[in-house]
């Protein structure tokens, strides 16, 4: 397994990024200035994008693993890698996600804890209703992790 920081042609990973953030217009807001990392195990398995929020905090804006490889530890390995990568630059990493038990459990297993929520984020910022595991996404739930 290897993880590479991608510095050019980030849009080549759009199909995978859209799995975690299904509106390209939203991805276009953070991808140009974000750090994109790709995890390979023979072939591409997972990607993530991290952006600075301020001098002490960075945000995991997108993390996605191809469906056939989910549950095999690739996402967790990517989070461990970026946590280590940024530990000397930031004190805290945050991530925002929908209020979906399986996703919240994944982040908690990666060392994140509940931080705060932004009411109506998904309904106010996306041009269509979004669903995950049959649940409509309404509020953005933020979790944080001390580096």
- CA radius of gyration is 14 Å
First and last CA, distance: 23 Å
CATH class: Alpha Beta
Give a short account of the largest sheet: 7 strands, mixed
Instruction: Bin the strand percentage.
Output: 35-45%
The CATH homologous superfamily name equals Gcn5-related N-acetyltransferase (GNAT)
* SS content category: alpha+beta
Named at the architecture level, the CATH assignment is 3-Layer(aba) Sandwich
- What is CATH's topology name? Aminopeptidase
Per DSSP E runs of 2 or more residues, the count of β-strands stands at 9
- Rough shape? globular
Low-confidence segments:
none
Number of helices: 5
Describe the structure.
The chain is α+β, with helices and mostly antiparallel strands. The chain has a single domain (2-146), classed as Aminopeptidase, CATH 3.40.630. Helices cover 28% and strands 37% of the residues. The chain has 5 helices and 9 strands. It has helices at residues 14-20, 24-30, 74-86, 101-109, 121-125, and strands at 2-6, 35-41, 43-52, 57-65, 92-97, 113-118, 131-132, 135-136, 140-146. A 7-stranded mixed sheet has the order 1-2-3-4-5-9-6, sandwiched between helices. A two-stranded antiparallel ribbon has the order 7-8. A hairpin with a 1-residue loop joins strand 2 and strand 3. The mean pLDDT is 95.
